[in-house]
Fold:
Amino acid sequence: MTTQEKNKLKEFLINKDIDSALRFLEAVEIHEGNYTDSQRNATWLYMTMKAKQLNEAGLEMRKVLKPTYELPWTKDSFHDHIFIPIQKAMFGTTSMRSLKKLQVSKVYDVIERELGQKFGLDSVEFPSDETKQLENLGGYKAKAGQGTEGVDYPQYNGASKL
Structure:
């Protein structure tokens, strides 16, 4: 969506002309960029956390995939055996670099839904910029796959205290 198109949409919304805004959105092509380095890092962190959760639940790879060998999960095995096959089925691509921003969320949603329904796993929250900002605020860094339990972040209410 161009700047001019965004301004036109704002005009419809300011004038509370919802019908025109909806028709406009249907006609406008929304361009998604490739996902960002932060999103890529968060995706790898998510895969690490999900692999840890699968291991802790006793759901090694053969129980989830094929009953041949007892293999613990790693972020790489999660990537190769779960993330990429779902990405390929949904979008026909096998490289995370080819994903668009919103496609990462769609792959995540399918993984969480399927593993939750089939194995009763709780959802692992996808790493967010808020976590990263809290780490920067407090000078702390969560280690991949270890979450933020026990990390004493300063109190954060979403507003700057400057």
Observations:
- The CA atoms of residues 57 and 121 lie 8 Å apart.
- The radius of gyration is 20 Å.
- The chain has a mean pLDDT of 77.
- The helical segments are 3-14, 18-27, 37-56, 61-64, 75-91, 101-119, 129-138.
